[in-house]
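USER:
Make up one protein:

ASSISTANT:
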Amino acid sequence: MVDKDHLLEANSFRSSLSSINMIVGYSIGGIIVSIFGNDISFLIDSLTFIIIAILIAFIRINYSYCIFKQQNIFIIINTFYFLRRNICSI
């Protein structure tokens, strides 16, 4: 997505945005909990997950890339099966 020449700048920008996102998110969360309490805050959190799930449902998928991802998911699932069989047998 980014040229190799701009990779360091892009990673720095992404890291900065991630840090800002955490600061703003925790601040808003703290404000909501202090104003509304735990029960309403949990309800608001649940509603935001539902809204995000609906928005994710409208994302268009590039199917040529999806085939590659399915292979990776298959490898991950097989790894979990392997670990479950071997760890449980110890």
About this structure: The longest helix spans residues 7-57. The chain has two helices and no strands. The chain has a mean pLDDT of 83. The helical segments are 7-57, 63-88.
